[in-house]
């Protein structure tokens, strides 16, 4: 099919943003990292191999779906689901928790990818840890304030006690209380340390909003990205960038998805992407030279507002906090 569109099947780059980037990351660890030559590079914007567990974690959602569709008494519940009217199945699925910006429990997701022992032989981050990753060049990136939009509907959580109860219930139900306390120390209620980052005391919708945004953005996006980069450093060509554009957007800052404006408008990241797809090298033309990431030199391209729109920095921010989150999520995947 690629040939039918004039493409070269030997030069496929898989690209995606958010729910498109996460499958790119999962394809890279699928089949124990054996891509079977189906793609030669990956480009992930706001997504990477997820901190999720095995398929048994989804059993309660399957059971609820079976019940809501009237299939509980069937001898073969899966076949029953295949035969129920589309509208019935659709309505039942919509009762399941999903990744929604308008949801109080935004990151409780029923039908997310999980290790099945076949396509994903282990938890995705454990596959990264084991080195079972496709040996192809890749880019992994994030927006600076990934968690803000997902935290807008937790505004009734205003105290430390309520925050602790929330993350214990919706993020870390099996994690010891002492570990929860440590997470809270790494992500304190000090609003000047929260997200939108680098905005001081601004954008604090509630005393806990910026704390929520920092923790949730790091747990689901930033920490998994860095974990992937650190584990693959020295093994293949890899790059990373952060988008800090739209930082002055009230309460949201450089919000999840804001990097897509760059892509849809044909901005500078598209120039880098086109070169990468063409020859596996991001550099050339008049754009700022973008060096590869290594653990010794964790180079990161910054996309900025203002007269200077590109700069280089190091991917070292919130290092201890993200390392601790990664340790917890490896032990207790969501």
UniProtKB/TrEMBL annotation:
Keywords of the record: Hydrolase
Listed InterPro entries: AB_hydrolase_fold (IPR029058), CarbesteraseB (IPR002018), Carboxylesterase_B_AS (IPR019826), Type-B_Carboxylest/Lipase (IPR050309)
Enzyme Commission number, as recorded: 3.1.1.-
SUPFAM superfamilies, A to Z: alpha/beta-Hydrolases (SSF53474)
Domain named Carboxylesterase type B: residues: 2-302
Record flagged with keyword Hydrolase: yes
The organism's place on the tree of life at top rank: Eukaryota
A GO MF label: hydrolase activity
The UniProt record lists the keyword Membrane: no
Protein family according to the UniProt entry: Belongs to the type-B carboxylesterase/lipase family.
Protein name as annotated: Carboxylic ester hydrolase
Protein source organism: Paxillus involutus ATCC 200175
Upper classification of the organism: Eukaryota, Fungi, Dikarya, Basidiomycota, Agaricomycotina
């Amino acid at each position: 099919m690629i040939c039918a569109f004039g493409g070269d099947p030997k030069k496929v780059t898989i690209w995606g943003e958010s729910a498109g980037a996460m499958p790119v990351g999962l394809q890279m660890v699928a089949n124990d990292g054996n891509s079977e030559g189906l793609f030669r590079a990956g480009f992930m914007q706001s997504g990477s191999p997820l901190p999720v567990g095995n398929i048994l974690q989804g059993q309660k959602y399957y059971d609820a779906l079976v019940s809501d569709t009237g299939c509980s008494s069937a001898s073969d519940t899966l076949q029953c689901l295949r035969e129920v009217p589309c509208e019935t199945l659709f309505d039942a699925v919509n009762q399941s928790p999903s990744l929604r910006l308008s949801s109080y429990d935004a990151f409780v997701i029923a039908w997310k990818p999980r290790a099945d022992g076949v396509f994903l032989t282990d938890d995705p981050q454990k596959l990264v840890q084991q080195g079972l990753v496709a040996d192809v060049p890749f880019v992994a990136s994030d927006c600076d304030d990934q968690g803000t939009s997902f935290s807008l509907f937790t505004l009734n959580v205003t105290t430390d006690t309520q925050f602790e109860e929330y993350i214990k219930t919706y993020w870390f139900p099996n994690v010891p209380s002492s570990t929860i306390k440590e997470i809270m120390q790494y992500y304190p209620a000090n609003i000047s340390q929260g997200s939108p980052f680098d905005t001081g005391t601004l954008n604090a919708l509630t005393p806990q909003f910026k704390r929520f945004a920092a923790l949730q953005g790091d747990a689901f996006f930033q920490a998994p990205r860095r974990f992937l980069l650190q584990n693959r450093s020295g093994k293949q060509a890899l790059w990373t960038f952060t988008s800090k554009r739209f930082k002055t957007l009230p309460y949201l800052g450089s919000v999840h998805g804001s990097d897509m404006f760059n892509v849809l408008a044909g901005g500078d990241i598209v120039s880098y992407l086109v070169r990468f797809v063409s020859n596996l090298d991001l550099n050339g033309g008049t754009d700022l030279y973008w060096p590869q990431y290594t653990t010794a030199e964790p180079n990161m391209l910054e996309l900025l507002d203002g007269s200077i729109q590109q700069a280089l920095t190091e991917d070292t921010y919130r290092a201890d906090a993200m390392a601790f989150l990664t340790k917890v999520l490896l032990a207790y995947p969501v």
